[in-house]
Amino acid sequence: MPTLQLEYSWTPYAESVGGIDSVLNCFLGYAERHWPGRIEVKSLGGAEGESPAGHCAARTAIRPICGRKRSLVPVNLRFLVSLWRDKTVRGGERVLFLQRSDHVLAYLGDDAPPLVLYIHGSAEHLHLPSESKLRWLRAFVPLLEEGAIRRARHIFVCSERGRRYYARLYPRYAGRFEVLPSAVNGSRFRLLGTQAARRELGLDEDAFLVLFVGRIEEVKDPLLWASAFAGVCARLPDARAAILGTGALAPQMLGWLEKHGISQRLLCCKSVPEADLALWYNAADALLVTSHFEGSPKVVVEALACGTPVVATDVGDLPEMLACGVPLTISAGRDARALAEAVLKYAGTQKKDCPEFVRSHACATVYRRVLEVLKAVAEGG
């Protein structure tokens, strides 16, 4: 069986909250148990003395090819250059699994090895706010993606709307696209009981707790989140919030809460390891997501697997999730008042299991399909 080569500019050393890093750590854990051959990971380097978290399978080699120190040159550009330099170092039969279209540039001039691409968002969101340092390059993205799509044998996208977008844009390659949602570790993210979780975390058992989970960056629109939470506070004296994440806009978000007199409602603002995140989902009454765009938001999948209601802007594959009968409310606009009203509707409701949703998003369901495609591509399918 050919070597499975996984390439992405992340550090598979420590658990993170949500995002592609967490998705890849989850996939790698599954692949280590089920891929019949060797696995090689090209990634960013960890801190000195840091060892891969949970990745110790004898058949897996994690090879950092690029440092992660801050630089004027964006990390993904540095990683791309490192991929191009490194691609001829290791020969042999292999199949590539790439997570970014721009990283395919390292392989555009080659017919081999075969390549499978996972697009975690879509180019239709390029005009929306984000923290990208390469905004000036957005006009060239469609050209880059066309080359990547032509080179890839199979392409996973996160949502049906993303699949439709690419099939419409590249009808010649429409058959290469397949929807693949985020997966959830059902043994970790499951219904545990609100009061039990709050006791373990030392939280007020009677409060109405609203979560923000993820990077505190422009793409997540943390100020809209803060404004919506203020609307909840105006109606519920016992409303509390926990912000689980870090980012460049954290001072601005905290300053907004202070300015509007509700900073005392905030229990914490910190990053937590994924191992602790399930407790917070179970302790919460609702997860509020105000992103400008998403692919298949992992935090939403995790929260719903814990039975925690979610209120969100209309992003990514949330319409597909809603079809599974989960406690999810999608706000058509970006209005703080409407988001607050949607959150308030979950006050006093009881959490319940969502077995159909958990089955459709289980690691065994999602990643079994990924390995099937990788094996077929490796064998010339």
Descriptors for this entry?
381 residues; seven-stranded parallel sheet; six-stranded parallel sheet; 35% helix; globular
The number of helical elements comes to 13
Strand content: 15-25%
**CATH fourth-tier homologous superfamily of the largest domain:** Glycogen Phosphorylase B
* Number of strand elements: 13
CATH topology of the largest domain: Rossmann fold
Helical residues, percent: 25-40%
Structural class: alpha/beta
Tally the structural domains. Answer: 2
- Classified by CATH, the class of the largest domain is Alpha Beta
- What is the CA-atom radius of gyration, in angstroms? 21 Å
Identify low-pLDDT runs.
none
Tell me the overall shape: globular
Q: What's the average pLDDT? A: 89
Spatial ordering of strands, largest sheet:
3-2-1-4-5-6-7
Largest sheet: number of strands, sense, barrel closure? 7 strands, parallel
Corresponding CATH architecture of the largest domain:
3-Layer(aba) Sandwich
Distance between the termini: 14 Å
What pattern of helices and strands is seen along the backbone?
EHEEHEEHEHEHEHEHEHEHEHEHHH
